[in-house]
Write a structure and sequence with these properties.
Blueprint (H helix, E strand, L loop, with lengths): L17 H19 L8 H9 L5 H15 L25 H29 L1 H6 L2 E3 L5 E3 L3 H12 L12 H7 L1
Antiparallel strand pairs: 1-2
Helix pairs in contact: 1-2, 1-3, 4-6
Length: about 180
C-alpha cells in the first residue's frame, strides 16, 4: 500500500497573495500570447489594479482563464483594464455583485421583513392581552411559536407599511424557503 497525505501544504488563497497575482498574470500572458501567435503585451497599471482587487474565488484557474481571454481581447500596445473580462464578457472591475452576496442580501431582507411583522404583532398582542389569548399559535421560522396578527395589529402593520416600511405578514414570504432549508 502506498501512504497518501504524507506532506500537507497549506497555500493561502490567491486573493491573500497579491504579488503572486501579478507574477502569475504575467506568466499566463506570455504563455497564451505564444500559444495564440499574438504579440506579448505588458499588463497596464489599470489592469494590474483590476487584477489585484478581484477576490479570485476560482483561484489560479480563474486568473489563468481571465488572462487567456485578455490576451485575445486586448487592443493596443498593452493589456488594459478594458480587456480584463469575466467569462460572461463583462469588465471585471464593473462586475461588483457576487451572486452569493446578492442571494444572502435577499434572504436577509426577507427574514428582516418577516421579523418586523412578527415584532409588531407581539407588541400589539402585549398591549391587548385579552386578544392575544384568543389568537391561534403559528410556527415561527426559528422553530418557536408566536401569535398570528390580530385585526388591531394588522391595522398597525398596515400603517407602518403605508409609512414606507415594507411589512411581510406572518406566515407569508420567501423567508420560509430559507428557514425550512436550514
Amino acid at each position: 500500500m502506498f501512504r497518501l497525505n504524507v506532506v500537507n501544504l497549506k497555500i493561502p488563497p490567491l486573493r491573500e497573495r497579491p504579488a503572486d497575482i501579478l507574477e502569475l498574470a504575467q506568466h499566463f500572458a506570455k504563455k497564451y500570447a505564444e500559444a495564440n501567435g499574438v504579440p506579448l503585451r505588458p499588463i497596464s497599471a489599470e489592469a494590474r489594479r483590476v487584477l489585484t482587487s478581484n477576490r479570485w474565488q476560482g483561484n489560479v484557474r480563474e486568473l489563468e482563464n481571465t488572462i487567456h481571454l485578455s490576451v485575445l481581447m486586448a487592443q493596443g500596445d498593452e493589456i488594459g483594464g478594458d480587456a480584463i473580462l469575466t467569462p460572461d464578457g463583462d469588465r471585471l472591475d464593473l462586475a461588483k455583485t457576487v451572486p452569493a452576496v446578492a442571494h444572502a442580501t435577499f434572504a436577509a431582507e426577507q427574514v428582516t421583513r418577516a421579523l418586523v411583522g412578527r415584532t409588531v404583532a407581539d407588541v400589539e398582542a402585549r398591549s391587548h392581552p385579552g386578544n392575544a389569548e384568543a389568537l391561534p399559535r403559528q410556527p415561527h421560522p426559528c422553530g418557536q411559536y408566536s401569535r398570528h396578527l390580530d385585526p388591531h395589529a394588522a391595522q398597525q402593520a398596515q400603517r407602518y407599511a403605508d409609512g414606507g416600511l415594507p411589512i411581510t405578514p406572518a406566515g407569508v414570504g420567501d423567508y420560509q424557503r430559507f428557514a425550512s432549508a436550514g
